[in-house]
# Entry
Amino acid sequence: MKKFLPKSVNNLQGFTLVELLVVISIVAILSVIGITLYSGLQQNARDAKRKADIEAISKALETNYNSASPTPYPILAATMFASGAIPTDPRTGAAYTGIPAAAAATYMVCATLERNTGNATSNAGVGLGTTTTGGFHCRQNTQ
# Structure
């Protein structure tokens, strides 16, 4: 009877265990590198959003400045923003520290940054603490 499959001493149709382990190791290393880079990019994006939010809050307060009033800076309202809402932290959803709760003569609004790329090492007493590496982005009144 004729055999359908020829008998071969060297079967070259598969992968060896060592080849599979090498490929799995390479994929694992590339995955770890990708996840690390992605995490850093997310932190940078959240920090950029925080900086933009602080600038928007500052512009809203400056736009509604009333020099005739003894407390020229108004209470921040959602109607001051095109979105109809006061900006919040992109990670926690919490309001930014230092937003005036009442009309005031001055203001300082700060956000804590994840990557320490801010313009301040202190939050000037608005409840965030201090760092030595620029961990805050703050804006204060300009008028």
Q: What stands out?
A: Residues 123 and 129 are 7 Å apart (CA to CA). The chain has a mean pLDDT of 81.
